[in-house]
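User: For my dataset I need records formatted as: sequence, then structure tokens, nothing else. Please produce one.
Assistant:
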Amino acid sequence: MELTEKDRLGTRLLALNLRHFELNREMEQTQIRVRQLESEIEDARLAGFLGENGGDATSLTVALEAERAALERRKATVENVTEIRWKARVQHAVAGLKERKAAQERIDGVDDGSSEEPPSP
């Protein structure tokens, strides 16, 4: 059995959906890490105000900025994959329409050829 264009596009769409899911999970994990670092920085600052040793807010701030940059890159990647996925959905739908139209034309061609009567003299 030969794969059709619609089958190929369907496979591509499935791969894009899986990648989109993975990227969303990574982005969610990065968002959680950003929130944790923000909380740790706030805890360190409060501990410093109270005269306790709550950790190094400076190193946490550097880590937070790195995580925020990673989050922005992931968001951009998710947006890009979302756009590509939308285009793939459209291509898949168009390929399905073309296949159905071609199948209908084949059926109509068979029907037209068998039901025609020769012209009468």
